[in-house]
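2024-03-11 09:14:02 INFO worker-7 job=invfold-0412 stage=load source=structure_tokens
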């Protein structure tokens, strides 16, 4: 018989109201090499890769000839945009680069399950009920304050069910709190998300993956 992991269940007021059994997909055996591979791909794909220097055709300087071609005793110059002038273009400087690494659907699912299992092992996953009924920002703020004190946690990530996505407007501006829908959450969100707060509504759907 497979052991089902359980996590503490809290109300939105920060009161522990019981426990919640998690599906078997949360019991994935953690392979740190596989998890690290997925994390590296996600991190690489979120890197903007926008280091950029301007060439002489891109700098905003006059194209007027510096001085006449002959008779000055100086080198010939056609424009202040040349690289040897201060404020001129840069030769062979870094240019925008965008690398997209692919990750298979199978690895995405496996890495996400491993990330959840990793967090469970560190006791950094809890569940909350009543999330969809939030009407004011002070409610999740008070909840995080109580939870932070009890768990000695500083960062949080809410993982929302489809029915709770609207609470985004009450949570998104809270300090040290992120939020993501369950269908979109990935291993990177979970692994670096601090304490993971699962919306109880996630487990009321017909099927979890």
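2024-03-11 09:14:09 INFO worker-7 stage=emit residues=209
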């Amino acid at each position: 018989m497979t052991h089902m992991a359980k996590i503490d269940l809290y109300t939105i007021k920060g009161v522990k109201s019981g426990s919640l059994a998690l599906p078997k997909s949360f019991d994935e055996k953690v392979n740190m090499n596989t998890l690290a591979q997925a994390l590296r791909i996600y991190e690489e794909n979120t890197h903007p890769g926008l280091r950029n220097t301007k060439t002489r055709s891109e700098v905003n300087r006059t194209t007027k000839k510096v001085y006449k071609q002959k008779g000055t005793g100086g080198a010939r110059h056609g424009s202040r945009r040349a690289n040897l002038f201060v404020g001129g273009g840069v030769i062979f400087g870094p240019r925008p680069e965008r690398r997209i690494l692919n990750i298979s659907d199978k690895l995405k699912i496996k890495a996400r399950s491993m990330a959840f299992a990793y967090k469970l092992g560190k006791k950094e996953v809890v569940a909350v009920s009543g999330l969809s009924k939030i009407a004011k920002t002070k409610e999740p703020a008070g909840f995080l304050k109580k939870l932070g004190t009890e768990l000695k946690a500083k960062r949080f990530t809410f993982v929302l069910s489809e029915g709770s996505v609207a609470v985004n407007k009450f949570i998104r501006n809270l300090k040290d709190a992120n939020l993501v829908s369950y269908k979109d959450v990935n291993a990177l969100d979970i692994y670096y998300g601090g304490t993971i707060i699962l919306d109880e509504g996630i487990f009321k759907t017909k099927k979890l993956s």
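2024-03-11 09:14:09 INFO worker-7 stage=report msg="The CA atoms of residues 27 and 83 lie 59 Å apart."
2024-03-11 09:14:10 INFO worker-7 job finished
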